[in-house]
Inverse folding.
């Protein structure tokens, strides 16, 4: 049962990922990308990681997809035409793929059995974030603050003259 | 008697499902149960939508010293039927240069998101259509797809008014989503769960036997409730904040190029979103389906929920009838300079309340925290009596 669901979600996700990569119309590609994020969230639900799945939708569909769409809208006007073959992109893609394959092969095999649902409370998540993952959390916080200040400086630039 | 009335809908559902139980496989029963929940949810809220669309016009008419709809049916109550038929038989126009697929998908996505968000709210004892542990998170995760849908509507129409309206809508939705989310966190902190049922359960008891444990009765809860309500007004694009569809400026914002039933879908999604935000406010701050006084608990739980919901909806309409529209810059300043700091203060104040023992002293400490921050903020944000020569950014 679970492997059937897995296959369906995988086909769904891959279809939209391919659409995002190949669609010449940038806006359609970005929207397919957003749908792909929903597919990834479905994987988390399948594994019983409800919280992560919901955060995936919340952050990626709600925020990142809107950000991408806005970036396309505000920066490129004639982008729908240029469609060259980019060797640099190919190399980066192969490198990322190789890295992912290496990481997947190194981990112990994850079986997609029936999800083991340990009722994960908000308190446990909070404790994990504040104890064992406190450094990554703080680093992400600093990074986001820096990005926020950077964005503000970019906007303030034209007022200074 | 009271108990059977309270659980009458649960019984009805069990009775409807009883031919399946025992004969059909388990998954079929589950699907049947979910389908019944969906039908009930849609039935109730679409009826409520029809009802509120005419009641709103009646109430607004009353406030503006005119009659409102009074031609179709008794007191104009059948007006939504006439409106529905009108919307259905109108011609559906899609602009030639529009992005057909995106233009078509936007109203579907926005309505689906609104309906899904309604699913996690507990409407009565044992009456949550979709029980999920991270219910609150689900609500916001689903709600966050709204922005994408609005963008799709604006961009897919290939119209300047639509695009500008969508940009405004997204800007205000993103800005006010922060206070909306952060004012929910104190409640989550106080309860220790993202499950709406548990949040309602935590507001079960009564101080001195008659003052309910509702979070709105704590200083942080009251502040958070007001902030949440204002953010909710913005998120549902209601009047003091209906900048995205300001009729006098940009026709109808992202809905400019929609006609007929698609426009009705947007309209419906807006109202469903309003119900969802009000329902969540009731659940988080007003004790959900709990009775306000212990000796009134014999009245069925769903009646209490919908009574509280109607009061909030009335306030929505009241505000619409009373206040003029804000400007975009006023709204943004308000979000980032006032709402956000106050929302964070609620968070701190809730922590103070918790660690001071959740009693009278905690109540006072938490009140003091909020009062201090409020006073400081109002000192800094006070812009009265400071008229300076006007400066223009893009003109001489």
């Amino acid at each position: 049962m679970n492997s059937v669901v897995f296959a369906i979600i995988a086909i769904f996700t891959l279809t939209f990922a391919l659409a995002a990569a190949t669609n010449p119309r940038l806006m359609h590609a970005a929207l397919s990308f957003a749908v792909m994020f929903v597919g990834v969230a479905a994987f988390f639900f399948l594994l019983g990681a409800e919280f992560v799945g919901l955060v995936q939708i919340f952050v990626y569909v709600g925020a990142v997809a809107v950000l991408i769409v806005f970036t396309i809208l505000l920066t490129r006007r004639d982008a729908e035409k240029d469609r060259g073959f980019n060797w640099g992109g190919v190399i980066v893609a192969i490198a990322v793929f190789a890295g992912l394959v290496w990481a997947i092969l190194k981990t112990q095999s994850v079986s997609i059995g029936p999800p083991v649902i340990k009722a994960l409370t908000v308190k446990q998540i909070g404790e994990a974030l504040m104890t064992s993952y406190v450094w990554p959390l703080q680093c992400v916080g600093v990074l986001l603050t820096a990005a926020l200040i950077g964005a503000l400086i970019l906007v303030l630039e034209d007022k200074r003259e | 008697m009271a108990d059977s009335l309270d659980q009458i809908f649960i019984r009805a559902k069990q009775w409807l499902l009883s031919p399946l139980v025992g004969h059909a496989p388990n998954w079929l029963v589950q699907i049947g149960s979910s389908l019944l929940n969906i039908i009930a949810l849609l039935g109730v809220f679409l009826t409520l939508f029809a009802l509120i669309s005419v009641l709103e016009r009646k109430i607004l008419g009353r406030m503006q010293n005119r009659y409102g709809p009074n031609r179709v049916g008794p007191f104009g109550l059948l007006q939504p039927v006439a409106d529905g038929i009108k919307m259905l038989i109108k011609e559906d126009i899609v602009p030639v240069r529009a992005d057909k697929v995106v233009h078509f998908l936007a109203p579907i996505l926005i309505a689906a998101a609104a309906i899904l968000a309604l699913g996690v709210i507990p409407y009565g004892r044992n009456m949550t259509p979709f029980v999920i542990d991270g219910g609150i998170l689900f609500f916001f995760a689903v709600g966050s797809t709204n922005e994408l849908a609005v963008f799709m509507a604006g961009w897919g129409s290939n119209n300047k008014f639509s695009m500008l309206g969508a940009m405004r809508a997204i800007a205000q939705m993103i800005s006010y989503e922060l206070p909306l989310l952060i004012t929910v966190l104190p409640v989550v902190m106080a309860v220790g769960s993202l499950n709406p049922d548990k949040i309602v359960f935590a507001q079960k008891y009564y101080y001195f036997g008659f003052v309910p444990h509702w979070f709105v009765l704590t200083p942080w809860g009251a502040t958070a409730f007001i902030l949440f309500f204002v953010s909710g007004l913005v998120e549902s694009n209601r009047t003091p904040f209906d900048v995205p569809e300001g009729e006098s400026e940009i026709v109808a914002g992202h809905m400019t190029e929609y006609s007929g039933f698609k426009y009705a879908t947007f309209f419906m999604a807006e109202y469903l979103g309003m119900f969802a935000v009000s329902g969540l406010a009731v659940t988080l701050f007003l004790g959900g389906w709990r009775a306000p006084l212990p000796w009134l608990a014999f009245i069925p739980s769903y009646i209490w929920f919908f009574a509280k919901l109607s009061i909030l909806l009335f306030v929505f309409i009241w505000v619409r009838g009373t206040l003029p529209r804000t400007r975009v810059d006023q709204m943004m300043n308000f979000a980032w300079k006032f709402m956000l700091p106050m929302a964070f203060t609620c968070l701190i104040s809730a922590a103070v309340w918790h660690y001071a023992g959740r009693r009278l002293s905690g109540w006072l400490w938490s009140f003091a925290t909020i009062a201090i921050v409020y006073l400081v903020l109002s000192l800094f944000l006070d812009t009265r009596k400071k008229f300076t020569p006007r400066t223009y950014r893009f003109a001489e």
Notes: Chain B is about 65% helix and 0% strand.
